[in-house]
Specification:
The complex is a heterodimer of chains A (782) and B (152).
Chain A: H1 14-18, E1 34-40, E2 46-52, H2 54-57, E3 62-67, H3 68-73, E4 100-101, E5 107-113, H4 116-125, E6 127-132, H5 139-142, E7 158-165, H6 167-175, E8 179-190, E9 199-204, E10 211-215, H7 220-231, E11 239-242, H8 258-270, E12 274-277, H9 280-286, E13 290-301, E14 307-319, E15 346-355, H10 369-387, H11 391-398, E16 407-408, E17 414-415, H12 420-430, H13 433-445, E18 449-455, H14 466-471, E19 480-486, E20 492-496, H15 505-517, E21 524-528, H16 545-571, E22 579-582, E23 585-588, E24 595-597, H17 598-607, E25 620-625, E26 634-643, E27 650-660, H18 667-686, E28 718-721, H19 739-756, H20 770-777
Helix pairs in contact in A: 10-11, 10-19, 15-16, 16-17, 18-19
Chain B: E1 2-7, E2 10-15, H1 22-29, E3 48-51, E4 54-57, E5 70-72, H2 85-92, H3 102-115, H4 121-127, H5 139-151
Helix pairs in contact in B: 2-5
Classes of the chains: A alpha+beta (782), B alpha+beta (152).
């Protein structure tokens, strides 16, 4: 039977998606559905006075209008936080604002009506008395004396102070340094912008007390758990959460949002289904944002380019409330990544998480790791410049050698496997560096400014194990479940706790199962995104579906094989040890003529007419895989740009990416994820920027003024891979979903700074828009 | 008011409010949910359909503006259960991931080839700049359009 692992087989989910037969939340229709529309604060900070709903109630079709006070009176509790740090301040975050609105777009009331048009008409007629207060949208400003307070119970606007590493050892490293390179960095705020806006449909059954929620979720079990146990008090077994086809997430659909809590509550009040679909304006204002750091960083180096120490101080803007995993992102997913691919012996990182009058910030593709990689890879280039070294040489000088794994960093992580120089070597086989430097020299003479940027990144994904995560503050386990059910006819249903919202699990997971059970891939169905079918699940984020989710499925297939072999041996009247499973058949080694098919064995498992003594009927296996460690993908990205001297416009000229993701299940799908990841990372470097004015008004609040990348601005990407399997999971796979985003931002920024080096420009904060570059170039000659 | 629109070859007469958008008419009145809504400002192109053969953003038209005209949606591209060459090409070239922008992207790409049967890579990229995809980085979408162009 042909091996599926490693083959670029076409996606099984595509025929429905290319013909318009996808099943997204807003596509669902159930009878008697009502529609919700939210009244949102136009102000970043305001006391909420009287809410007058009289005019709104007169709109034909309006069924109910609820305010924050109605929800509190109805027993609705604040939305909790899923990761707690020592002494963290967690102000109450109610689904609808109660006394104060703390960011532009915060929901204040919800209107439910017979049609979406009526709900919107009425929402516009709800009159809220706002007493507008001063606002502070910037993280650094929020820490200043006299800054407007966001929450009374978070003095100085501080949610937490966190640090990692050895401060004394780092001080000592700086004391003996030949060179110290300092730079302040702004890692600006982004808005995820999955093309499908968030949506939900809540349907309460008054007869049974059951409720079904269809929601755009990356982790439906987490949605259910939090709504049941914390926010709405619904018995967990009475709630079913279904997350059908989901149109992209990039982190933004992990979190439990106010709107879906309000919709579930309203459905129970009205005993009618309640549907809500965000418009894009709402997505900009109410989906969790990403990044937003102010950082001071310094690197201590020996004269030969060896890194001695790294010191980082970061202010992380968390927005107005703590979103579900917000505290983990600028801490355990950031500070721990600061060793990168290098042997830096001493690191110290301090992070202050601050509240501001802005939309909450949480995990967005990469989540902390792009921020760490950007500052580290920029510092490598700045240090090379200061020491008169080549950016490639300084990286080689500091790489962790391939024979040092597992490698313990000074910031908690234990790297699983790696060959960082190997990935760089491969990238330099594709990209002729010497020839580029000659071309760059020639071009400069003609007044054309080319630049090359390297990013020899490392990332940590498939966060685990649960016990360690729990000790660090996680309020959840980080395993994944898989139930593999073989039916009497040998067909297979796989129930996975991972969730696919573009990743292609229906294909890749089926490849793993087809190989292990030696059945045709068409006989395998992957079922995900339904708490009514899947036993439990932590969902998909942090590039965990391969290293954790697929590995759990693999474990279940091993249990199935073991039991199937017992049955086959019994039917063949042979010793189990002598039976082999090859080519889809069970037979005694050396006697393939007398065999039992997978069908024969499956059927007997359920007929139970002739089973080994004491063996239970059925052929089904449930596994929970809790990996012993993270996995650590790595690689080298190289970007070439040309900067227009007169306009500051950056043209992408070439992009080479060599990634090591361990073993790869489906190269085509992995290439696609890397392409998309790179597009998002490039876009942060050059275009995307969520900007607030001084009053906390989001001035990039639509696709008209928030610059998402378009087809004509991007270029083809040259991809290659090295393969260093991980010992952490039985498949040897590392995560693939975020590497592109994590690596590329630094590569592009480094390339632009290289292009601008003849002008004596060392650093410009992102996004590297024509305006910013033009400003920096003003009055400067080459 | 009553309107009659020929949608995917079928004449459909419905009573609609004058303010109802064409995309809502298709999705809500006719149940053709393959056409998606991704933004409110006609940037994303997820709602692209063909109106008398030309690609339009159905979130930016009222249903009444389609009265008496022909609309083709993603559901109307394949014939006799066989995928349209552009649908096949998106599948073959892995031109989609989450699939949400895909219907609009495919419809736009069809119109692009209608106007220019042999586009260069740059012309394809420029021709699709009214459709946003957040998953693919467009690389495989460009390849898909190239494949469909080769297929004629």
């Amino acid at each position: 039977m042909e091996t599926m692992f490693g083959k670029s087989i076409k996606r099984r989910e595509d025929p429905r998606l290319v013909t318009g037969k996808g099943n997204f939340v807003d596509d669902l229709k159930i009878p008697f559905t009502t529609h919700a529309a939210f009244v949102r604060s136009p102000h970043a900070h305001a006391k909420i006075g009287k809410i007058d709903t009289a005019a709104a109630r007169k709109v034909p079709g309006v069924l109910a209008i609820y305010t924050g006070k109605d929800l509190v009176a109805g027993g609705v509790k604040p939305i909790p936080v899923g990761w707690l740090l020592p002494n963290i301040k967690v102000p109450a975050h109610y689904p609808l604002a109660v006394d104060k609105a703390r960011h532009m777009g915060e929901p204040v009331a919800v209107v439910v009506a017979e049609t979406p048009y009526a709900a919107r008409d009425a929402a516009e007629l709800v009159e809220v008395d706002y007493d507008v207060l001063p606002a502070v949208p910037d993280g650094a400003d929020a820490l200043k004396r006299g800054a407007p307070p966001v929450h009374d119970d978070a003095p100085g606007n501080v949610s937490f102070k966190w640090s990692i590493g050895d401060a004394k050892a780092t001080d000592a490293a700086f004391a003996k340094a030949d060179k110290v390179v300092k730079q302040s960095f702004r890692n600006h705020r982004l808005i995820p912008n999955a093309i499908e806006p968030r949506a939900c449909l809540a349907s309460a059954q008054p007869g049974t007390g059951d409720i079904t929620l269809w929601v755009t979720s990356q982790n439906p079990h987490v949605h259910r758990l939090i709504m049941a146990a914390f926010v709405l008090g619904i018995p967990e077994h009475k709630m079913r959460v279904i997350s059908p086809d989901v149109g992209g997430g990039f982190g933004s659909k992990i979190f439990i949002y106010p709107e879906e809590c309000a919709a579930v509550w309203a459905s129970r009040q009205l005993s009618r289904p309640v549907k809500w679909t965000a418009d894009r304006r709402e997505a900009f204002l109410a989906d969790a944002h990403g990044r937003d750091h102010h950082t001071e960083a310094e690197m201590a180096l020996a004269a030969d380019g060896k890194i001695l120490g790294l010191r980082v101080k970061t202010v992380a803007n968390l927005g107005a409330y703590l979103s579900l995993f917000a505290p983990a992102v600028p801490t355990y997913l950031y500070g721990t990544l600061l060793a990168g691919a290098y042997t830096t012996p001493a690191i110290h990182c301090e992070v202050t998480g601050v509240f501001t009058h802005t939309t909450p910030v949480d995990a967005y593709r990469g989540a902390g790791r792009p921020e760490a990689t950007y500052l580290l890879e920029r510092l490598m280039d700045l240090s090379a410049k200061e020491l008169g070294m080549d950016p490639v040489d300084i990286r080689r000088k500091n790489f962790i050698p391939p024979d040092k794994f597992p490698y313990q960093t000074p910031v908690a992580l234990l790297y699983d496997s790696g060959n960082y120089a190997g990935a760089l070597d491969k990238a330099l086989q594709i990209f002729d560096y010497k020839a580029f430097r000659r071309e760059q020299e020639q071009a400069r003479k003609q007044g054309r400014y080319l630049g090359v940027g390297f990013s020899t990144y490392l990332e940590a994904c498939g966060l685990a194990p649960s016990q360690v995560a729990g000790a660090l503050g996680a309020q959840a386990g980080l395993y994944e479940s898989a139930n593999v059910r073989v039916h009497p006819t040998g067909k297979v249903s796989v129930f996975t706790g991972s969730h696919s919202h573009g990743q292609g699990h229906e294909t890749t997971f089926a490849q793993v199962v087809a190989d292990e059970l030696q059945v045709p891939i068409d006989d395998v169905d992957i079922i995900h995104g339904d708490t009514g079918q899947v036993p439990f699940g932590m969902g998909s984020y942090g590039s965990r579906s391969g290293p954790v989710g697929a590995a759990a499925i693999y474990m279940s297939t091993q249990k199935i094989k073991e039991k199937a072999k017992k049955i086959a041996a019994h039917l063949l009247e042979a010793n189990e040890k002598d039976v082999t499973h090859e080519g889809g058949k069970f037979f005694v080694k050396g006697s393939p003529d007398r065999s039992k098919s997978f069908f024969d064995v499956s059927l007997m498992a359920y007929l139970a007419h002739n089973l080994p003594k004491g063996l239970e009927p059925g052929l089904e296996a449930l596994s929970f895989f809790d990996p012993g460690n993270f996995v650590f993908p790595f690689g080298t990205h190289i970007c070439v740009v040309e900067v227009e001297r007169d306009t500051g416009y950056v043209h992408l000229r070439r992009y080479v990416a060599v990634d090591d993701l361990g073993r790869v299940i489906n190269p085509m799908i992995v290439d696609g994820m890397v392409h998309g990841g790179i597009a998002q990372g490039v876009s942060q470097a050059l275009w995307e920027h969520a900007e607030y004015d001084e009053n906390g008004q989001l001035i990039t609040g639509s696709m008209m003024n928030y610059a998402l990348p378009k087809a004509d601005e991007l270029i083809p990407i040259e991809l290659a891979r090295t393969e260093t399997p991980t010992p952490v999971n039985p498949l040897g796979v590392k995560g693939a979903g975020e590497t592109g985003t994590i690596a590329s931002t630094a590569a592009v920024a480094n390339a632009v700074m290289d292009a601008l080096s003849p002008f004596g420009i060392k650093h410009i904060d992102m996004p590297l828009t024509p305006g910013r570059i033009w400003e920096a170039l003003k009055g400067k000659g080459a | 008011m009553n309107i009659t629109v020929q949608v995917n070859g079928v004449s459909e007469t419905r009573s609609v409010e004058p303010r109802v958008l064409l995309v809502h008419f298709l999705r809500e009145n006719l149940g053709l949910t393959g056409t998606h809504v991704g933004c409110d400002t006609s940037q994303c192109g997820a709602c692209t359909v063909l109106l008398d053969g030309a690609a339009v953003k159905s979130c930016s038209l009222f249903a009444v503006q389609a009265d008496g005209r022909k609309v083709t949606t993603i559901e109307g591209l394949s014939t006799d259960g066989k995928l349209h060459a552009m649908q096949q090409a998106f599948w073959d070239q892995h031109g989609l991931q989450c699939g949400f922008c895909t219907p609009g992207m495919i419809v736009s790409a069809c119109h692009l080839l209608e106007r220019n049967p042999n586009p260069s890579e740059a012309e394809i990229r420029e021709g699709l700049e009214g459709n946003l995809c957040r998953c693919t980085g467009y690389a495989n979408i460009v390849k898909a359009v190239q494949q469909a162009a080769r297929a004629g």
